[in-house]
Every structure is written in C-alpha cells, then in structure tokens.
Write a sequence for this structure.
C-alpha cells in the first residue's frame, strides 16, 4: 500500500480530494480516501501501483503540495537538510558579498551553480576570493542583519528531535553561519565549509575538505550507517543542484522551492507550504507539532 498526502493548508476540501482521487484512479481504480491528518489542511489517499506514475498523475493539482511514498516507514529517523534557501531564506555568500560590494556578481555565480550550470567547487572558490579582506566581525553582522529562518523550519526539526530522530544540517555554505543556525533551529549535527582567516580578516580561501554534492551524500550515508538505519528511514530536503546526490540517496528526498535540476530527481516537491508541512507528510497531526 502507498500513500499520497495532499497538503493545502486552510483550503483542502471534498472537491479537491475528489479531484485528486479522480487523477489517482488512473493509476489504481481502487484508490480511496484514507484519513484526514488535519481536516482542511492535509489528508492521505491510499492506493496500490506505481509510485512514480501516481506522482505524475497528481502534478496537475494547483496550489497543492503532494507527497507520494510507500506506506512504511512513515516516520523518518534521520532528517538531513541543506541550509541556504532551505532552512534559511537566503544564500549567505550572496548576503556576505554585499558587504564587500560584490553582491550582484556573486549572486549571479550562485544562481548558475545552484542550477547545475557551473562546477560547484570552482564557483565556490571564485566567490570566496571576492570576499578577501572582509573583517571577521562582518560575518556576525551579516548573520544578525540578513539571515532569517524559513517558515516551519524550527517546528519541523524540534518535532523530529522530540520524536527521537537525528537531524543534520549539511551545507555548501559556511560553518560561521551553519553552526549558529543549527543551534537556533535544533539540529544535533552540522557539516559545512570552513572559511580561512588571516589577521582577523577573510583570506579569500576556503578550507579543505570542501562540502560539495559528493560530500553531502557521504555525510548522509555516514550518519545513516552510524545510526544503523536503512535508506527508507531518511528524509532529506534541499533546493539546488548540489543537493541532488543527497536527495537521491534519501528514502524520501524533497525539493523545496527548488531549481529544476533538483526537482527533476526528487521524490516530491514542496512549493506552497513551509517546511513544517513535512510533518504532515510523516502523518503527524498539528496538535503534536513542537511549539516553542
């Protein structure tokens, strides 16, 4: 048995459910309503048959996020998330470059790299070189002035931690941002790149090893194996091309407001809701979400 979770917060009604069932019955004539997770917000439909075909059949639903997956396991015991434009709403390197007067140039390179049109390592080194000479204190200022959490990020992570899951923030960005973000949100693990300083200023270099797409995938596998979990126990979310390998490795890989390259390989897309919608995808009712 497989599950298609429909998410349309505040507007999920019988009409939308009936339309979804009509589409899903092209895959399985016996597809049926299973249950409300939260009435008016999220519901499960049950079906048998090809999961990819079911995902495709439901793509025409407008303003609805649909997550299709096997019925078990529903709760994931390891959550792995990208940081920039996923857990936070910004690309930190773009915001930091603004203090050096190079935001437009850096942001253009970032966009191409996240679309998979530039080599990530080369693009990272090129952008970091433009930051040379920035005072170390500028990073804290940038964090305070520019960085904001994505809606639902803290609720998602704190609820998963409360339920016994491990949560890892893995970023192609920088530890100077990732460590405080991880602490604020509630991640118990963090991996990111290390900026090199000389005399209290950025040297324009990034330390080895670089956290790229391969390193993100390896970090997921390392922690999964440490916890003695299977691939199906892992939920991962990201937005860019450098998240593709990590997303493909996870049992449920979700593209969050993502670039086309990632959306193409992900198991599901989250386009209309905050990250806490991933709790509905795991069958968790709103009354059981972390509130802090």
């Amino acid at each position: 048995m497989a599950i298609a979770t429909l998410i349309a917060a505040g507007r999920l009604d019988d009409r939308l459910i009936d339309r979804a069932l009509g589409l899903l019955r092209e895959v399985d004539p016996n597809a049926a309503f299973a249950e409300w997770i939260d009435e008016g917000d999220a519901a499960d439909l049950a079906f048998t048959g090809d999961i990819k075909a079911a995902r495709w059949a439901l793509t025409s639903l407008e303003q609805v996020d649909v997550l299709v997956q096997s019925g078990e396991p529903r709760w994931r015991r390891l959550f792995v998330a990208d940081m920039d434009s996923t857990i936070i709403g910004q690309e930190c390197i773009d915001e930091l470059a603004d203090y050096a007067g190079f935001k437009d140039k850096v942001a253009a390179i970032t966009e191409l790299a996240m679309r998979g049109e530039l080599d990530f390592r080369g693009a990272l080194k090129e952008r970091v070189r433009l930051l040379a000479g920035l005072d170390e204190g500028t990073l804290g200022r940038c964090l305070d002035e520019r960085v904001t959490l994505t809606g639902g990020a803290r609720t998602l992570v704190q609820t998963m931690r409360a339920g016994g899951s491990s949560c890892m923030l893995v970023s192609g960005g920088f530890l100077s941002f990732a460590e405080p973000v991880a602490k604020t949100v509630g991640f118990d693990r963090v991996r990111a790149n290390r900026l090199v300083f000389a005399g209290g200023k950025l040297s324009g270099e990034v330390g080895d090893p670089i956290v790229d797409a391969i390193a993100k995938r390896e970090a997921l596998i390392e922690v999964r194996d440490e916890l003695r979990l299977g691939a199906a126990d892992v939920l991962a979310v990201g937005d860019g091309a450098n998240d593709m390998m990590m997303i493909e490795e996870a049992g449920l890989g979700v593209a969050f407001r993502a670039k086309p390259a990632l959306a193409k390989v992900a198991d599901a897309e989250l386009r209309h809701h905050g990250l806490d919608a991933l709790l509905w995808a795991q069958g968790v009712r709103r009354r059981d979400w972390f509130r802090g």
In short: The chain has 13 helices and twelve strands. The first strand starts at residue 2 and ends at 7.
